[in-house]
Amino acid sequence: MRRGSPFAPLRPLAPGPRLGLGVLFFALFLGAWAAATYGGLIKPLFLADPGKTLRSGVQLFVEFGFLQDIGITVFRVVGGFLLAAAVGVPLGILMGAFKPFEALLEPFISFARYLPASAFIPLLILWAGVGEAQKLLVIFIGAFFQLVLMIAVVIGETRRDLMEAAYTLGAGQSSVVRRVMLPGAAPHIAETLRLVLGWAWTYVIVAELVGAEAGIGHRIMDSQRFLDTGQMIFCIVIIGLIGLGSDLAVKRLNAWLFPWYASR
Amino acid sequence: MSGAPQLTIAGLARRFPGPRGGPPTEALAPLDLTVARNEFIAILGPSGCGKSTLLRIVAGLDQPSAGRVLLEGAEIAAPGADRGMVFQSYTLFPWLTVAENIGFGLRERGVPAAERARIAAAWMGRVGLDGFARHYPRMLSGGMQQRTALARALANDPKILLLDEPFGALDHQTRSLMQELLLGIWEAAQKTVLLVTHDIEEALFMASRVLVMTARPGRIKSAVAVPFPYPRAYTLKTTPEFAAIKARLTEELREETRLAAG
To answer: Which of B10, B55, B44, B41 shows the shortest CA–CA distance to B191?
Structure first.
């Protein structure tokens, strides 16, 4: 391969071409979709064309109060996620830093994280009804166990040489946790939270497909009754856009919070 | 150099358990050493001879299998601010600026922020890092990082400075400059130094006493009192007297290295 080739392994790309390529694939995707639907390859019953989808979207906002659905879904995602983070992060830190906590909890949490959150929905309806508490609990279960384990790993991977350096500078054990483990792991914890927030979005829709009276997932079920693929696709696209937006926002926030941390 | 020894190492041994229940590895044979206040001791030895283990035990980061270490009469059981250490690997806290790194130990002792900043600034001046107070470690070269690490250890005003091949990862020119810098600081500050190195020239240029360790299990094979008066200049390295002692130490070390490789 020639020198200067953009295909040299791990060679970084300038911001312009990077953005361009990212947008290009969205355009390709849109083009393929348009070709398949306008070209008559796929019947409108199965897949609406882009124009129809957009019109359905406008209709959703104007006639069906879609903004409220979005609001309630965002509330559930953020609520369930914050609950999971509020309990999961401290617990993960305890497990990562102190091995007795790890020995006590790790086996159970490893077991619990394989329990699919969606399988709990019938039980949770039984316990908590079909209200908000049940929706938040689905997300909590989906996010919590994964989060705890990932945080524990991140804390456990604290550089031993930095801990030793701190000890030789007179730091005690609680100081090493506060002044070495936590700040060192902070960017990784933030990155983990970003990942888990993405998962929370998949759980919320599952939760809303069953026994919900509002929310994006509920709207998708409603649209299915009328075989309105345009509305369904529009809902899915909105979820994707909100996910992408929040992901970028959190990435920016992390870069601003941790200027010392260069991720490659 | 007078009075009781500042550091006493008596019958110190360290044995590491063997892998899969195999025979244990003897890293340090029973070893004795006394160090007077303000001595600059360099410890030379083939790799794997336990010289780093010795330093880590003095720092309190490792526990001996037998024997003890006394600092001013008190037995060492754990790490403490009275023994500052500079490691071979880069161990600055990446989330702290240069000034905050230097002030780490001071903050631990509750020194107020203004005072920390003042002390950090003074040390940055002494190690040639003026103007880098707000830089993060990843923005610094290896030499600058080790100068910061040195300042961080010294800002704590430890009784003993433990240096574990602090310049090992640096290129030759940078290393020479670092040696002069460290020597200058030691001549001015008067501090007991234990330097572990495999570089004979480095040991001879800085130390007042050079110890050669044997191949594993490490014990002290010979001690050479370095006759050159302080302050020393880098030109010392090219004198015939320097070359003569260097040749002798090279011969002794070579023997042990051959045994170690053996």
So the answer is: B41
